[in-house]
Amino acid sequence: MTKHQQAYHSPFAAMLTRDRFALATRLAAQYHLDESQVMFAYLQITAAVAESGKTVTARQREIDRRFQAFLDDAATPKTL
Question: Is the model's pLDDT at 2 over the cut of 80?
Answer without folding.
Answer: no
